[in-house]
Amino acid sequence: MIRLILIVGLGGFFGTVSRFLTSRYLQNLFPSTFPLGTFIVNVTGCLLIGIFYGLSQKGNILNPEWRMFLTVGFCGGFTTFSTFAGENVALLRDGNVFYFSLYAGLSVFVGLMATYFGNSIIVKIL
User: Fold this and answer.
1) What is the rounded distance in angstroms from the CA atom of residue 55 to the CA atom of residue 70?
2) Could you tell me the sign of the dihedral formed by the alpha carbons of 28, 33, 37, 38, in that order?
3) Which among 97, 114, 125 is positioned nearest to 42, based on CA atoms?
4) Whole-number CA gyration radius for the chain
5) Phi/psi zone of residue 32: left (φ > 0), alpha (ψ -120 to 50 degrees), beta?
6) Quick one: which of 85, 25, 72 has its CA closest to 45?
7) How many angstroms separate the CA atoms of 70 and 92, rounded?
8) 8 A C-beta contact, residue 62 and residue 73
9) Chain centre to alpha carbon of residue 75
10) Which of 65-69, 81-85, 87-91 has the lowest mean pLDDT?
11) Angle formed by the axes of helices 97-125 and 36-57, to 10°?
12) pLDDT at 64 over 80
């Protein structure tokens, strides 16, 4: 159990650092009230988790430890649902109802579609 905790924790570390750097870079590159950095990170994380689950389901390409490292650890640290929720509350608090609706709606829909697409890529290829 300790080994699994360390595997997930290490994946979480890399995912969290990747989220921070990616989100910060994109937000600085495209400054806006719309939280583009977090949006891109969440959609990318959904795509990745779909790919990783597909790899673990199709032919056992990922062993259980790698699956935990990549899905629970890396993707869990990389995706930012708590940040997403906080940013939505801030948009509402600031009266940005349009950006709130756009951000919340697109994040859920595009995130689900990216997860499905990522999984489908692996299922069709392998």
Assistant:
1) 11
2) positive
3) 114
4) 16
5) beta
6) 72
7) 33
8) no
9) 6
10) 81-85
11) 20
12) yes
Written as one letter, the residue type at 108 is V
Half-sphere exposure of 102 (CA within 13 A, CB side): 10
Task: Write down the residue that tokens 């959609």 correspond to.
Answer: 43
The per-residue pLDDT for range 12-35, each reduced to its tens digit, is 999 999 999 999 999 999 999 999
- Is the pLDDT at 49 greater than 80? The verdict is yes
DSSP codes, the chain: -HHHHHHHHHHHHHHHHHHHHHHHHHHHHS--SS-HHHHHHHHHHHHHHHHHHHHHHSTT-S-HHHHIIIIIIIIHHH--HHHHHHHHHHHHHTT-HHHHHHHHHHHHHHHHHHHHHHHHHHHHH-
